[in-house]
């Protein structure tokens, strides 16, 4: 009876020891690699089924515990892809950036750099306040252009760059329009001339031209205003002119301001003549007084 009892205790201890040994991870061993494979396969399955949120957690675990198993590169890329597909753009850009830094020789590197730029493009921004995100996205796309000049993605890259340029154009146009509303035509002219140089293909070009014409007219520079009006007439389609301002209406506006200007000049001339006459009469009167004083002295 005592022998059986001792034997049972021995068997129990042996089984416990075996279980503990089996649970201890062996660095670089097959058990850890198998565990990482199973986790990656499960995450990959979720990803392919469109369960991107559920795929992120096991992928992040792989990055923490599966160093040296061969699953790090794929896990890092799929995490970035998951954030991208979930439209969590700030996180996606960060994960693609980590992937690019950690695996520069990866076959996925071109895709990662492209999607990093697209993620930056889609990060929320306020066009009236800060263009940091626009600058960030432009830098990412320009880096892609430099690194992969022959990429089949180049047409798409150019498309996004043009959209970013239009963002900047819109911001500059709004700034100039604000100056115009605040009755600062000189500042408006400076902004709009630079706008037309920087963004000749902008959809805001017709409105910028119209704003420039009005500002020159308000500065009493009527010939320059008419010069740009002719440019407006020749380069802006009639359909857009009708939406913004017709050439005839703009010419009438210039003529109205010019008439007021000429009336003001004429009024100023008359006022100067009156002042000159008054000064002359005052001088003559003073001379008469001086002469009378001299006679009294004698």
From TrEMBL:
Entry-linked PROSITE patterns: PROKAR_LIPOPROTEIN
One Pfam family of this chain: YfiO
Annotated spans, Disordered: 273-298
Signal peptide per UniProt: 1-22
Residue ranges annotated for the Outer membrane lipoprotein BamD-like domain, each copy included: 39-225
Coiled-coil region(s): none
Alphabetical UniProt keywords: Cell outer membrane, Membrane, Signal
Amino acid composition bias (Basic and acidic residues), ranges on this chain: 273-288
Biased composition (Acidic residues): 289-298
Entry-linked SUPFAM superfamilies: TPR-like (SSF48452)
Name the UniProt record assigns to this protein: Outer membrane protein assembly factor BamD
């Amino acid at each position: 009876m005592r022998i059986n009892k001792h034997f049972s205790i021995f068997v129990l201890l042996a089984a416990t020891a075996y279980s503990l040994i089996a649970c201890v991870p062996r660095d670089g061993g097959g058990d850890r690699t198998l565990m990482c494979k199973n986790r990656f396969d499960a995450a990959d399955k979720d990803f392919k089924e469109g369960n991107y949120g559920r795929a992120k957690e096991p992928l992040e675990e792989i990055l923490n515990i599966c160093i040296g198993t061969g699953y790090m590169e794929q896990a890092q890329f799929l995490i970035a892809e998951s954030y991208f597909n979930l439209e969590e753009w700030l996180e996606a850009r960060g994960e693609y950036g980590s992937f690019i830094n950690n695996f520069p020789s990866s076959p996925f590197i071109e895709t990662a750099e492209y999607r990093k730029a697209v993620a930056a493009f889609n990060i929320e921004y306020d066009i009236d306040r800060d263009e940091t995100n626009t600058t960030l996205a432009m830098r990412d796309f320009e880096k892609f252009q430099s690194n992969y000049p022959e990429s089949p993605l180049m047409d798409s890259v150019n498309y996004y760059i043009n959209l970013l340029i239009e963002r900047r154009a819109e911001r500059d146009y709004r700034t100039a329009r604000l100056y115009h509303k605040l009755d600062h035509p000189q500042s408006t002219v400076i902004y709009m001339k630079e706008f037309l140089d920087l963004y000749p293909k902008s959809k805001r070009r017709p409105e910028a031209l119209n704003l420039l014409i009005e500002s020159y007219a308000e500065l009493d520079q009527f010939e320059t205003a008419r010069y740009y009006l002719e440019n407006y007439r020749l380069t802006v389609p009639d359909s857009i002119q009708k939406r913004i301002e017709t050439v005839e209406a703009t010419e009438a506006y210039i003529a109205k301001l010019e008439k007021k200007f000429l009336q003001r000049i004429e009024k100023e001339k008359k006022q100067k003549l009156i002042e000159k006459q008054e000064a002359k009469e005052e001088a003559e009167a003073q001379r008469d007084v001086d002469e009378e004083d001299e006679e009294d002295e004698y």
